[in-house]
Amino acid sequence: MNHIVYMSRAVRPLSDQDLRDLLDQCRYDNARHEVTGILFYSHGNIAQLIEGAPAVIEPLYERIARDGRHSHVLQLANKPIAHRSFAEWSMAFHPLESESFRALEGFLLPHQLPPTPDSLPIADALIVDLVRQAVLGAADQSAL
Ligand SMILES: Cc1cc2nc3c(=O)[nH]c(=O)nc-3n(C[C@H](O)[C@H](O)[C@H](O)COP(=O)(O)O)c2cc1C
């Protein structure tokens, strides 16, 4: 199993409806392909970690990188991992209307994010913490 981590910029700010559509699409497709991970979004900044079989996540990453909704896609890691760090696929962002998102499966408010798992090697955990902080800001780090 491998994980891939990247950062990118939304081409235009994503509305609550855009984020909901992305959440629905990703949750459904990733569950079918046993892809897990986490996506962070705030003010047009995006970072995502995807984990799964290399034969699945490499082409998925290529598709994501070509997606017209974002640009400046920069891959930060692509390497074998011993275990998944995220049991399910989820997405963390601040919606304008939080109430309507609360019950959505796969959605987390940034302050509800679990700490980066101890099972990740230190260098990988550092990348995840860095991208999380870069996108969501230090105030939303539950570990702090
Ligand atoms: C920021 C971002 C993250 C995405 N993450 C995923 C993902 O985790 N899984 C997924 O199947 N599609 C994801 N997509 C959607 C893909 O880019 C693409 O639309 C989807 O794989 C369908 O591709 P196709 O239309 O070529 O079949 C993401 C798109 C964006 C903009």
TrEMBL record:
A Pfam family matched in the record: BLUF
InterPro entries: Acylphosphatase-like_dom_sf, BLUF_domain
Coiled-coil stretches noted in the UniProt entry, renumbered to this chain: none
Annotated BLUF domain residues: 1-92
Molecular function, one GO term: FAD binding
UniProt superkingdom: Bacteria
Protein name: BLUF domain-containing protein
